[in-house]
Input
Amino acid sequence: MCTTTQHPKVNPTPEPEVVQPTPEPKAQDTEDAKDIYSVFQQSVDKYFKKIKENTSTYLQSVSDLQLEIIESRKKNVESVISFQKTMTDKLGVDTKVPETSLNTATDFAEQTTKAWSFQNQLMLTSLEMFSKNIQAFNDNSKTFAELNGKLLNSWALIIKKKSQD
Output
């Protein structure tokens, strides 16, 4: 009665990463390696590169799990309906109900589906707004950094002038 859709599976436990020793810096990089900001930048770059590499695997795993839960719940509900129908048939119970009861059940199902669709739309809109807020934050951070750079340049010129006098 129920067909199962096959989804690509992602190994939820990826192979452990083999840690490679950090190569010695080349002669020309020696001065840069002593610069704390360069070391921090390299560490930050490596950290975010790893996050980006793992994000798609993580999202696929969560998506697969969600689809498995939905399919499991659907099979569970179908099984209960089938069992109840079999039981009433074997016991000879009359399952005919008034038209108003059938309409109530149908209306309830339609309203539930509409509520879920509305909730889904709200979530998508919220995620879109969240993304736009992050973009605005990034734009503002860049502008703030540029402003700080200009301010620093102005102060440096004033300090250099004062020290030359």
In short: Confidence is low (pLDDT under 50) at residues 1-8, 16-30. The chain is about 75% helix and 0% strand.
